[in-house]
Every structure is written in C-alpha cells, then in structure tokens.
Amino acid sequence: MTKETPKIVTRTRRRDEAALKDFAFTQEMVRSTGMSEFIRNYRLQAWQTYQSLPMPTVKEEAWRRTDLRGLESDRFRLPQSEAYLDLAPLPEELMRPIADGEHGGQIILMPGGSQVNLSEELAQKGVVFTDLRTAEENYPHLLEKALSKVVKPTEGKFAALAAALADTGVLLYIPRNVEIDQPLHSLLWGPGVHLAHVSHIIVWLEEGARATYVHEYASPTEAGQTLHVGLVEVHVGAGANLRFVELQSWGENVWNFTHERSQVDADGNLDWIFGAMGGQLTKNFADLDLIGRGASGRMSGFYFTDGQQHLDYDSQQNHLAPNTTSDLLFKGALIDRSRVVWQGMIYVAPGAMKTDGYQANRNLVLSRDARADSIPGLEILADDVRCTHGATVGKIDPDQVFYLRARGIPKVEAERLIVEGFFDPIMQRIPFEGVRERFQEAITRKMEVYHG
Amino acid sequence: MSDELIIRNLRVSIDGKEILKGVNLTLPKGEVHAIMGPNGTGKSTLAYTLMGHPAYEVTEGEVIFKGQNILELEPDERSRLGIFLAFQYPVAIPGVTVANFLRTAVNARRRAQNPEDKGIPIPEFRKLLKAKMELLKVDPSFAGRYLNDGFSGGEKKRAEILQMAVLQPEIAILDETDSGLDIDALRIVAEGVNALRGENLGVLVITHYQRILNYIRPDVVHVMMDGRIVETGDADLALHLEEHGYDWVREKVDNGTPA
Known about the structure:
With 452 residues, chain A is α/β, with parallel strands linked by helices. Helices cover 19% and strands 36% of the residues of chain A. Chain A has helices at residues 37-52, 120-124, 132-138, 140-146, 157-165, 398-405, 411-427, 433-451; strands at 105-110, 113-118, 128-131, 168-174, 184-189, 196-205, 210-218, 226-236, 241-249, 254-264, 269-276, 281-290, 296-305, 310-319, 325-334, 339-348, 356-365, 371-375, 378-380, 386-394. Chain B is an alpha/beta fold.
C-alpha cells in the first residue's frame, strides 16, 4: 500500500468586499476661486461633510437594494479644462430641439467646457439661464439665495460630494411674474472612461413665474466606468408654475447618483417628468416638498431597462402644508437581467389637512431574469387627508400576444405594441413629441436587441 | 391552389384531453357555413385551432388553404394568408388605439408582401378606416379608443367586425359572435357581416343558438357533437334544431348512424 500524502488546503478567508474604497478626490479639487466667500464656504463645508460620511452600504435602508461593490471608486478623476476636445463628440441629433418649436435658450455642458445661449428677449426680462461657473462669477446673489435652501449637503455622501465638487451645472432663475412660453433646454454630455462628472442644477422660480425646462444627461456607452454625481434643487415660488423634464440617456457604463428635490410654495404647481433609458447603475433620490398651502406637484416617471442595468428610485412626496396635492406615477418595462427598485413614500406632516396624495408604480417584466421591486409607503400624521397608492409588477399576457398575432402582427411587433400601450398613459403626460419619440426609439432599439 | 378551406380528420387535445375527434369540413369561398351544437362539444376549440392558439395540440389531421397546410403556420402567418377569427372574448390592449392597432396590422400585411414597404401612408389609412366605419355604422370616436379597453359586449363584437372589414380576410370564423348581445346589438353586428359577404369570403359561423342565423343566412349548417361533425344540412336544419333541440341528433349518433 502506498501511503497517501495528505493534501493540505489552506483557505484564506475572502476579504470582506463590503469595504468599498472611498473616492480618490482630495480637498484641493474643491474649487475656491472666482466665487464669493459664501459659495466658497458652502463648498468647503460640504467637503467636510463628504469626508465625514462613509460610502453607503447595503446595510443602510435606502441602499439595501443597490450594491455599490463593483464601483471602481478610487479610479475616477475630474475632467480638466477643455477635456471634451479629446473625448467622444456630442452627436448632432442631441442638439436638435427636443421640444416643439424654438428653444428660449439652450446650454450644452461638456467635460471642461460649455456653450450657453439665451434669447435676447428673455435676458431682458431678467431671466438667468447659464452654466454654473458663469453663475458663480456673475450671479452670486442668486446662488446665495438658493444654495442649501432645498437640498442640504448633509443629506448624504453623494449630495455632499456634488455640493463640494460640482464643476458643471445650470442656474435657471425666473423673476417674479415672468412667464416664458419657449422651453429652455440643457444637456450634460458626459463621456470619458474613469471621468467623474459632478453637476449641480439650480432652478429658482419667483412668485407667479412660469417656465418649461428640459434637462438631459447623455453619454456614449464606453468600455470602462464613468461616474456622474448630481444635485438638483428646484424652488417653485408662490403661484408659480414649472414644467420640468429630466431625461437620462447615459451610456450603459455610467454609475449615476443624484439627489433631487423640488419645493413648491403656496398655490404653485410643478409638473415633474423623469425618463430613464441608460446608465449601468442609478440611485436617484427625488423629493417633492409641498411647503405652502394649496401647492401641487405631479411626478411622472418612465423607464426601460435592459442588459445588466440597475435603476433605483427613492421618491418622497412630502405634504408640509394644508390643501396640498401630489400625484406620482412611475411606469417601466424591464428585459434581460435588468433590475428596478422603486421605493416611494407619501408623508403628511401634522397639520397638513385636506391633503390629497397619490402614488403608483407599474412595472412590466418581460424576461424571466429581470426583477422589479416596488415598495410604496404612507406616513400620515394629519387628519382629514386622502392618500392612496398602488404598485404592480406584471408580465405580458400571452392572450394579448395571440390576439394581435391573429391579426397578422408578428410576435416581436405584437410585444412592442403592448409595451408601447403600457407606456401610453405616461406618454400622454409628456408635452413634447421629441421626448416621446426619443423614448419610443429607445424601446424599439432595446426590444430589437432583446429579440436578437 | 384551392379556394376552399379543407379540414381533414382534425384531432385536437388540450392538456392531454382529446376535444376534437376527427373533424371533416370543407368551406368554399363565397359560402356561409354554420356550426351549431351544444356547449362543450368542441366548437370553440375548432375556432382557436384554426387560428393557431398555442394551448391546442393538434394530434392528427390537416387544414388546407391555398395549397398549404395552415397547421404548420404561425398565427400571424395564417392571418396574413387570409384567415380571420372574430373572438368570442376579444382581448383588451390598453394604451393601443383601434386606429394604431389596425394600421400596425395593415402594415404587417404589406411588409409580408414586400419587406421594403414603408407602411400605408397615414392619410390613405385614415380614408380606409373611415370608409369601413361608415359601412359598418361605427361611431368615428371608436378609432381613438384603446382597443377593447372598457368596451361593452356589443362594442367589442362590432370592433371585431370592423377589424374584419379592414383586414379583408378570405375565410372568417365567427366564434359565438352572438353571445352576450341583445337583439339590437346582434342585428347591427349581423348587418356588418352581411355587408362583407361576397364571392371572395367564406364564413364559418360558430354558434350555440339559432337566432344569429336569422340575420346571417347560412348556405350550409353543420351540427357538432362530441368533437365531430355529425349532421350537415341546409338552413332549415338550424330551424329544426331550434324547434326540436339536439336530442334527436344525439340519438342518431348513439344508434351509430351519423350523417
């Protein structure tokens, strides 16, 4: 008998991957020149907050379903001045008017540069529509009025990061009682592997103002990660009216983190639309604060995820005053191995009576491996309110497909028609043909790839 | 190439249970045939099988139309070949308007003919739809409504006939089109079918009751029982059945003397 040599296997315990590295940003990257002391302090404080907060992990409730391990956090750098010259160019079609007719103004934000156009007529009315750096230089009083009033940098790691490091963004300011018919359009073009695009959008409508604003995020799909961290702060003054459309068409390599909040004052109204087609991973906090009596807000979301995309929406409808109305409808379709999370909360503060809150999330899951989690929530601390919610996760009904095929429509087209029909109620809320078309094109493209 | 729909020895099972046990039937274009019979004898199974519903398993037989065994075709291919099924329970497609749906169906036909086809121009389609809606006395608002979504029973059946008018099939199978309709709705639907009758259309009316046949006069009446056609006659057969019920047919079958 031969003697067996015992095999010795040593197992080293796998390092706990939860220890996601912090970003490699440093305090030197916090811009401090060309701005007022107020703004400088705002950034510096935000930086300190950023440093004091750990990277979020799945142990935190808000991040429970969105795992950041896999993010190459220590590899990102901020774009240098004129970085766009060496990066993938902005496709022409993204600059075509997305809204019907002419723009009142258009801003193109690129890595390390921007282009700003605003009609003479609007400028004369006192409308400010410009990029963040110009705003810091020329409109410090407006920024000082707005910064920190809507989103506090202390609200989270990414909110603090965006406040401290934003080197791109938009300031839109509409003076009292100025009403604008032509839509304003801005586009953040964010190409570049291992680049971090950090943006700050500030929208401030004074009492009685009215405007329509479309903001887009876009980039090509590239091999390697790209980061976007964004802060969006919106103030709709008393009796003011804002239609705000945000379209996300990031490349499928982009990790996207945004903190957004809109506050609406007495009798003001906000029509807020979110569209998401791109990105590798998105975590979006979107809050609606109804702060004055009679304020109302509608939040409409549509998304179509494919591949390995991960989309996590965290919405809050905060009724902080009496007689306020909110209405949220998010609808999305999922294919491949993509994943969507929607977690919504309607909060009614003590004393906010005669509140009417509604939220619904509807998902159409088209592949076995895709997954949607839909988690509505209510927290009501006032009497005499009406709050309702609904959440559904469903599939395409094979009887619908058969019915359409029985009319000569091939299977793939039948499914596309059913998906388009599913989105129709949300498309009806979108005022622009251009936006609807862009989304429909994305649906068709994704379904074609899916069906091979 | 044959201008008839020929069903030969068709045997069909659902969930392993045999429903159709050898159906033979020939439907020439230009004729209207009725299939009558008690509930649960396989009438609707025949309708769904002819259209290609995936739940129905064909175990034997063939169905020949235009020289092809259509049982080998996908449901949408059968439709484009000229077969139409008016559903007993039309399915709602929320968010898709009647007009959008019909334009998609028309374009699917055009593209099957010519892969380069750019689709029917919208003004031409509008004209076509308007003409068919007028022919069938359908309210113009129909076009903009979501297909079958929130439709009444009568509206659903009228929508089926409108689809038939736009798609112009050569063989139409009406599956219990009379069910759930009051007499006025039935008359409207029947008028629609009659308006589409002609040399180029063969119609198979599947019904439980004779009353629809008062409005759509059949050339031939078949009686189906226990998965087979057991009796065939002219329009008077339907009247006879209305008066005497199905028992006499059943007795005949039980005595081993099927028609």
